């Protein structure tokens, strides 16, 4: 559910919404949601001084209800 919600939010921000992919990764630190976006959209998702990324992390933290979810933004190859 969290991955779908994050994907929906990010697709509303970017121009290349077909390139948005959210992957869930489990490691010893817990669950991490990796957001893969087109290189042209990386700045849009991060925002000025990281404000957009911070807002996305805040929303995901609220939806996770204290589960400790991390959000990483990753650039995807433009091919």
Automatic annotation (TrEMBL):
The lineage of its organism: Bacteria, Bacillati, Actinomycetota, Actinomycetes, Micrococcales. One of its GO terms (cellular component) is cytoplasm. InterPro entries: KH_dom-like_a/b (IPR015946), KH_sf_prok-type (IPR009019), KhpA (IPR020627). It is found in: Cytoplasm. GO terms for molecular function: RNA binding. Keywords: Cytoplasm, RNA-binding. This is RNA-binding protein KhpA. HAMAP family: KhpA. It comes from Kytococcus aerolatus. Belongs to the KhpA RNA-binding protein family. A probable RNA-binding protein.
């Amino acid at each position: 559910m969290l991955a779908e919600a994050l994907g929906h939010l990010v697709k509303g921000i970017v121009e290349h919404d077909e390139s948005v992919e959210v992957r869930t990764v489990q490691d010893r630190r817990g669950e991490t949601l990796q957001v893969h976006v087109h290189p042209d959209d990386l700045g849009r998702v991060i925002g000025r001084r990281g404000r957009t990324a911070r807002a996305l992390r805040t929303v995901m933290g609220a939806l996770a209800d204290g589960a400790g979810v991390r959000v990483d933004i990753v650039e995807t190859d433009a091919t």
